[in-house]
């Protein structure tokens, strides 16, 4: 490589290096926006799910959902859609009816143990972490919590 060509390459690299701080700041701002958006989603009021079979979770509406079954029929909670990597879903089942039917989850929602429905006058909550294709349980209330 001749000296003029080396100077030209060095000038190209200099402009790239000079742009790195701006690129770093832009990436940092985007990361902060994502974190802010995540907290705004979590801070939204809980959404009431429509009692049907299956129960549909529209994850675009927020992160926290509540379901109050109105009969003793077994139901399925569908996998949240759209499912986004890093998304946290909080689902609370509120029993104001009596003896609830069994509750199961969609095939891409993985829970650690069988779900136990809350007794009448109580509620239970489960927390799910989604990876874009599946949601995995990260926690749940161990016992019934009074309504």
List the helices and strands and how they pair.
Layout (H helix, E strand, L loop, with lengths): L2 H41 L3 E2 L15 E4 L7 E3 L10 E7 L8 E3 L3 E2 L11 E9 L4 E6 L4 E2 L1
Parallel strand pairs: 1-2, 2-4, 3-5, 6-8
Antiparallel strand pairs: 4-7, 7-8, 7-9
Number of DSSP strand runs: 9
Structure annotation, total helices: 1
Helix content percent band: 25-40%
Our count of domains comes out at 2
State mean pLDDT (0 to 100 scale).
Answer: 83
Low-confidence stretches: none
Can you describe this structure?
This protein has 147 residues and is α/β, with parallel strands linked by helices. The protein folds into 2 domains: 1-43; 45-146. The protein contains 1 helix and 9 strands. It has one helix at 3-43; strands spanning 47-48, 64-67, 75-77, 88-94, 103-105, 109-110, 122-130, 135-140, 145-146. Strands 1, 2, 4, 6, 7, 8 and 9 form a 7-stranded mixed β-sheet that branches. Strands 3-5 form a two-stranded parallel sheet. Strand 7 (122-130) and strand 8 (135-140) form a beta hairpin. The longest helix is centred in the N-terminal third of the chain and has 41 residues, at 3-43. The radius of gyration is 24 Å and the shape is globular. The mean pLDDT is 83.
Short synopsis of the structure:
The chain has 147 residues and is of the alpha/beta class. The chain has two domains: 1-43; 45-146.
Features:
two-stranded parallel ribbon, alpha/beta, 1 helix, globular, 7-stranded mixed β-sheet, single chain
């Amino acid at each position: 490589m001749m000296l003029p060509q080396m100077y030209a390459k060095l000038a190209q690299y200099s402009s790239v290096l000079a742009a790195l701080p701006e690129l770093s700041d832009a990436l940092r701002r985007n990361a902060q926006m994502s974190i802010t958006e995540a907290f705004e989603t979590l801070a939204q009021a809980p959404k009431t799910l429509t009692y049907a079979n299956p129960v549909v979770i529209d994850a675009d509406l927020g992160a926290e959902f509540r379901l109050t079954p109105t009969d003793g029929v077994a139901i399925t909670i569908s996998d949240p859609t759209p499912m986004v990597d890093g998304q946290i879903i909080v689902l609370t089942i509120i029993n104001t009816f009596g003896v609830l039917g069994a509750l199961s989850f969609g095939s891409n929602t993985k829970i650690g143990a069988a779900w136990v429905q809350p007794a009448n006058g109580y509620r239970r909550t489960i927390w799910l972490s989604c990876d874009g294709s599946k949601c995995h349980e990260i926690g749940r209330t161990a016992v019934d919590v009074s309504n």
